[in-house]
Structure formats: C-alpha cells, structure tokens
Specification:
This protein is α/β, with parallel strands linked by helices. The chain contains 10 helices and 9 strands.
Length: about 210
Amino acid sequence: MTTIDNRAFDTLLAGRPLMAIFRGLGVERSLELARQAWALGIDVVELPIQSAEDVEALAAVAEAGRAEGRIVGAGTVVARRHVDEARAAGAAFTVSPGFDERIVRASFEAGLPPLPGVATATEVQQAMSLGLTWLKAFPASLLGPAWFGAMAGPFPEARFVATGGMDAANAGVFLARGVRTVAVGSALEDPEQLPALAALLASRSA
C-alpha cells in the first residue's frame, strides 16, 4: 500500500500560528475577508466547500492567493468529489472534520496535503500509523488546552492545528500548550476578531 504523509505542512504552516476559516460567505465577501486577513499578517485561509457557491468562492480566493503568495485550503472535505473540486479550484491542501483514510489517501494522491480531524488517542494513532504528522484537533474548545499536553506524551511527533470554538481570546492559550496553528472560523463573524488576532500575532513576534 502506498505510503502517505503530510509533511508539506512543515512548510505551509511554518511560522504561521493562525489560520482564518471563511464558511459560506460567497465570492465577494470571501475575497474581501481573505484580503483583510492577508493584510493583517494571517497568511493562511481555509474555505469549506459544501456547495457549488463555496467551490466558486474557493477558486476565486485561491487565484487571488496565488497572486499574493498566500496559502488557501479547502475545508469540510468529506467525499472524493470534494477532493476533486478542491484540486480543480486550486486549493493548496484539504481539511476534514474527521479521520477517513479514504479521503486522506485521495487527497494525498491528488497532490493536496490532507489535514484530517482527530479527537481521541485512537484516531491520532491511526492517522500517524499512515504516516501523517499534522492533524486537526476538533472540536478543540471542547477538548481543551490540556488535551494537547496529554497527546504530546505518547505522540511527540504529532503537530496539531486547533479548530472549533477558537477566537482571539483563547488562541494564545492553545498556542502556549504546543498547538502549532489555531484556526478561527465562526468567531470571524465579529468584525473585531481579525484585528484582535493580528494583535496576537504582533505580540508573539515582539
């Protein structure tokens, strides 16, 4: 069986502790918020693809991202067709809410580093046994910051992206517990969140 990995995230997410998720906002709003995020220093954005309109928005943001040297991924990838849509739209990677080996393999074979979701030690072990090192912890706010410290013991090579219930108020706590990247989604409905996240970035680099 083909060996897979997602070590590409070592480069894609290097020095990028924040990711913005724009769900179901349409082309114009997604582009507007992506450009705002990029201007504030949040280089990586994810657009979940749950409709034809979402795929259209992903394609538009991915094109804009390539022009500016930014990274755009496809989220909520739960079917093979989503992998195909993500690749056709120009996504740089895929993100899934859960762990599905079929989707992981399909994404890897399509040239898109997969970031599957995990919430238990069993899922972490299964994912790492395939060769994956980067994993999405979901829902991170319910797992809690201490979960990451607990996982670091048996799985020291695992690198986690915390997603679910993340915002500018708690992102720093999770990053301090060893999370490599915090992905902020629904909280971005609050227009104050992006500037607040940018301030968090500035404080970490100061």
